[in-house]
Design goal:
about 350 residues, D-Maltodextrin-Binding Protein, domain 2, 4 domains, five-stranded mixed β-sheet, about 40% helix
Length: about 350
Amino acid sequence: MADDKLDALRQRIDAIDDRILDLLNERARVVIEVGETKAGEKRQFYVPSREQAIYQRLCDGNPGPFPSEAIRRVYREIISACLSLEEPMKVAFLGPQATFTHVAAMQQFGLSARLVPLKSISAVFEEVARGRAHYGVVPVENSNEGIVNHTLDMFMESDLKVSSEILLEISHDLLNRSGRLEDVRKVISHPQALAQCRKWLEETLPDIPLVDVGSTALAAQMAAEDETAAAIASEMAASLYGLKVAKQKIADNPSNFTRFLVVGRHTPERSGQDKTSIMFSVKDQPGILYRMLEPFHKRQINLSKIESRPLKSKAWEYIFFLDLDGHIADDSVRQAVEELRPYCQFLKVLGSYPKAAR
């Protein structure tokens, strides 16, 4: 009797899956029509604000029991596959494969995008600027280690725009060939990953030497070739290089996030939940810091980040990077930026883009 009921339930699941497949193909056909319409009007086929609206609408309307947190992951792949029917999307990222930047790129663009690893942040910017990639993904800051200066420096030289941002929770695992801590004779990783796990390493493997390499993925590759070595890297690196997890989540601070920026050649449309990034250099005069912030204060515009970098061409002068709530197309944001402009030696709007989901 139980077997009969189980067979009946499985038949219902099969029928539901068939309906889902029919609907996926119906969605794909509509997306192809959308792509043809956009091509005729020379409009961008990737619209981050539209994706955010889809995720939000579906999560808000989800009655359950399907978990809302899984909706974004499922629809990320549905949207990625459908976008590939409009135009194959090429996305450059700071490689190699299995780095956290690679994970962030997959989280944003899905498995149907063509993800291309490059050796430097400047190479990612150049690939997009020359039109050899539609978008690029680069790290900009870590919640524990701070800003990635090279990314900010690249905006000084580049006309690319920030198209979206990605927040990725960083989980450092200790990987080796056997999956046993007692086999570890050295630990290899990127210096930032080693720094984020230093307390655990000192307490658990106090006499084991630490080796700096260029990326967590390279560390995993080296550990795969050396049975005495362990790498601090991502779960994805373990899968890619055939390693086992000797210990999960070894970072000293369990709340560890890295923010990544997606760079492209266009500013996205408003989504209603946007962030704008600007960079500028102010003239050296009394009260300039007050004047720099006043346009935003009096319009009640929230500033979520202020970062400064030395101006390389002049000693003791600085470039400021500002993240603020709102879109440059919003009247209040546009007016605040224009009010700031006369106090600046130069000012550049790096982009307005949807805020990352937290």
